[in-house]
Amino acid sequence: MRARKRFGQHFLHDPAVIRRIVQAVAPMPGSHLVEIGPGRGAMTQLLLESHAALDAIEIDRDLAALLRERFAQQSGFVLHEADALQFDFAALARARGAQLRIVGNLPYNISTPLLFHLLANSAVLTDMHVMLQREVVDRLVARPGGGDYGRLTVMLAPWVHIERLFDIGPGAFQPAPRVWSAMVRLTVRPTPAFAVSPHFARVVAAAFGHRRKTLRNALKGVVSSTLIDACQLDGGVRPETLAPEAFNILARTLDTCAES
User: Fold this and answer.
1) Residue 61 CB contacts under 8 Å (≥ 6 apart), including other chains
2) What is the pairing mode between strands 100-105 and 32-36?
3) Which of 139, 208, 244, 258 has the fewest CB neighbours in a 10 Å radius?
4) 123-181: pLDDT as tens digits
């Protein structure tokens, strides 16, 4: 079964790496796992050996047929031939009557929108163990002031605790990608790190829409200089120097305007 470029497929085949990932996930009987992009089922088999319930989401119909045949007799395995970007995780959680644990080797070409889709469903998730391009993981764990710090970092911060686990070389995949990958754990916070304003996403998107601009210029037309000053923030700094909660403080000024 050859990898298809349009699905961004790189099949994980290194047994040592697969075991290390499953050990990091630490599935237990009674857990409700969701594997995104199981591919040929290399990791699926080990996950099922933990006696956890496993829903697998695979968009490639040929791979789906292969998985159905391979795991047809496996208790606890349910296959969904679907696009993970459109998948209703909340409905699945209701059907299973439990919180979900996400596991997957996320295709590089959809990793960021898929993370945002999962974030939108964070209320029904316990954690996510996902493999991403190493550069994306660099962004996830970046601190304010660094070149990797940006919109993705800030948007995830209120909802999840992020832990980089280990890097994975190209040789662990077939075909080998041109870049390194990394495994990361995102643990959903029981409550958000701060009370997130409904305008938070808008402010963050505007702030990082033009990275070279100062905060004042980047937010022009969204948050006025007067409001920035009222928040006791320096409008002359660049957005990447601010902590996530600072963007929420700015967003809350828009909440007040909307209420008045």
Assistant:
1) 81
2) parallel
3) 258
4) 999 999 999 999 999 999 999 998 899 999 999 999 999 999 999 999 999 878 889 99
